[in-house]
Amino acid sequence: MTTPTRSNVAPSTIGVDFVDGGVVVQYLDDREVFYHGPPKPVESAITTPPGKDVHVLVTDPDGIEGVMTYVNDRDTHDEILETTGVGRVMLESDDEEVLFPGVTVSTEAYSIRVEADLSAVDGRVFVFAEDELSEHAYEIVGEEYDGASGDRTDEEAAERTEDTDDGDDASEE
């Protein structure tokens, strides 16, 4: 039996929810998947452990919606990806592909490298690498990330507070 050929599939906008302990992605067909976290902050790029299933999520600035792309997924049929809204990119060895403006994926031996130019991304970039033995969750952050205020710098948190009418909508940590 031959292995079916898999092709690139463009992602659609899907729902995202940040909850205690991880990230929930809401597919177009109303199913949800939970990625265990919280994501580990990494600066600029991450090279995943070898042999993992790699999923890249780029969210809008508010983290309410985003696009999810599977990298080198050979198991999921194109039709399933299309009904869920998840995209796929297939890379050859030593290949590189722009997933989203400012987000590039490439192969590095048996690993996947995800790089993000956050000045070109109007949102957040998450990388999930998993197999049946382990799950890894990462958020690509800029060098200004200080980790003191959770998922954003104090300056970014202040900007969010200024954007609200009376400041009541912004949460303090």
Describe the structure in your own words.
Residues 141-173 are annotated as: Disordered. Residues 153-173 have a biased composition (Acidic residues). It holds the Pfam family DUF5796. There is one protein chain. This protein has 173 residues and is mainly beta. It has one domain (14-143). It contains 2 helices and 13 strands. The protein has helices at residues 78-84, 154-163; strands at residues 14-19, 22-26, 32-36, 40-43, 45-47, 53-59, 65-71, 87-89, 96-100, 103-108, 111-116, 124-130, 135-141. The strands form 2 sheets. Strands 1, 2, 3, 4, 6, 7, 8, 12 and 13 form a 9-stranded mixed beta sheet that branches. It is globular, with a radius of gyration of 17 Å. 27% of the residues are buried.
Ordered list of secondary-structure elements with their pairings:
Blueprint: E1 14-19, E2 22-26, E3 32-36, E4 40-43, E5 45-47, E6 53-59, E7 65-71, H1 78-84, E8 87-89, E9 96-100, E10 103-108, E11 111-116, E12 124-130, E13 135-141, H2 154-163
| End-to-end CA span | 55 Å
Shape: globular
Mean pLDDT: 84
User: How many helices in DSSP terms?
Assistant: 2
